Amino acid sequence: MTFATMALSPALLQAISEKGYLSPTAIQAQAIPAILTGADVVATAQTGTGKTASFVLPLLQMLSNETTEGTRTRRPKRFRALIISPTRELALQIEDNIHQYSRHLDIRATAMVGGMTYQQQKQKLIEGIDILVATPGRLLDMANQRALHFDEVKTLVLDEADRMLDMGFIDDIHKILNKLPKQRQTLLFSATLPKAIRKLANSEIHNPIEITIDPQKAAAPKIEQWLVAIDKHNKSALLSHLIKEQHWTQALIFIRTQHGAAKLVSQLEKRGIAAEAIHGGRSQASRSQILADFKTGKIQFLVATGVAARGIDINELSRVVNYDLPDDTDDYIHRIGRTGRAGLKGEGISLVSKDDFKRLCAIERRLNKIITRKEIDGFSVTKGLPPSNLNFTLKSVQKSPYSASEENLAAKAAKKPTPIKASKEAPKSAANVWAQWVDKNKG
């Protein structure tokens, strides 16, 4: 399937071509035709799968059709499509995508988020828009001030619905839904479908077309995933070495805390590497400027906490680094999904200390594969990592976890698996694996 076979207008096809996209991703190939039929859609897809374009493109096409048919008029404080996003950064990124795809169309869109003046946003509503992108809190604030009306909304998009649930927005979403016309098209996109989101979908979405992109395939095949085992206190030195010796030009570096982000930036700068940190402790204006500078390449190395990085969407980002592994396996997939986009190659690199081992095991179980281990000259570890607990389904485990390539392990796994003879039964948890490894390597 190609974009040209999707009933998209020449103006949209031109914009797609100008962005350098050659063919639709899996979610785009399924969602765009479904949305264009006018059906409700529930789609499960991770970050990095082309999710935003999968709803923006058909929205623009449907609005363009109304213009051609002469059925669309712009009235003050009203709009035809509403996109609700969990974070300010993501809302602004969606707005930017809309502007890029609609550059050859007469479509007006604006984002309504916290951190921006009410008066500026109210003025845009008065002038008339077609698409409103908003965070739940600001949208309700404006509705309560009667600065906008929902009576002309034809299409609602709930983007990253599970994130909105995690961030405590579910009650706000219900309040917004109660204000919308009952006759509308509803599109729900989520990385996962927890019970509360399924309940919401069952009550608010009618006979939806359900689309699921296998999360195991969300880490695209053009993303090379590898890790280095390293003592925690040596992580910053290793990162600096990789940046310099491998001549990295840009990287998004994920870290656990605001304090850790500031400390890492300081350590990198002491080694002559310019970096910037983005986290929830910075103002909205500061975060927006940092994201813009990172996108243009003015900032090469961005250290980010998970929440602050949700709005980052760069098509040509070549490298993502997990300085700290996330607690949630979905977050790992979200993170590495920010690279390897638009058919380009990318790298997902993790710096793993013994404190990260339980998280690593959970991630590898989710992916159902071993992440390639690599050794870096000059950086050894006191004990090393034990083999992943996935290895315990294999006949034997290599003495060095670094010699176990993903391909070799996969080949061995294809053979009839037997438990390791050294233990009566295969360990059932990462803690057991770690305890056995430490006991075996004492002294």
TrEMBL record:
Annotated EC: 3.6.4.13
Low complexity: compositionally biased ranges: 410-421
Residue ranges of the motif Q motif: 1-29
Enzyme class: hydrolase
GO biological process, one term: ribosome assembly
Region feature (Disordered): 401-427
Residue stretches making up the Helicase C-terminal domain: 222-393
Record-level Gene Ontology MF annotations: ATP binding; hydrolase activity; nucleic acid binding; RNA helicase activity
InterPro entries in the record: DEAD/DEAH_box_helicase_dom, DEAD/DEAH_RhlB, DEAD_box_RNA_helicase, Helicase_ATP-bd, Helicase_C-like, P-loop_NTPase, RNA-helicase_DEAD-box_CS, RNA_helicase_DEAD_Q_motif
Keywords associated with the record: ATP-binding, Cytoplasm, Helicase, Hydrolase, Nucleotide-binding
Domain Helicase ATP-binding positions: 32-211
Entry-linked CDD domains: DEADc, SF2_C_DEAD
One GO term describing the cellular component: cytosol
Chain ranges of the DEAD-box RNA helicase Q domain: 1-29
Reactions mediated catalytically: ATP + H2O = ADP + phosphate + H(+)
SUPFAM superfamilies, per database record: P-loop containing nucleoside triphosphate hydrolases
Family assignment from sequence similarity: Belongs to the DEAD box helicase family.
Name the record gives this protein: DEAD-box ATP-dependent RNA helicase RhpA
Source organism: Marinagarivorans cellulosilyticus
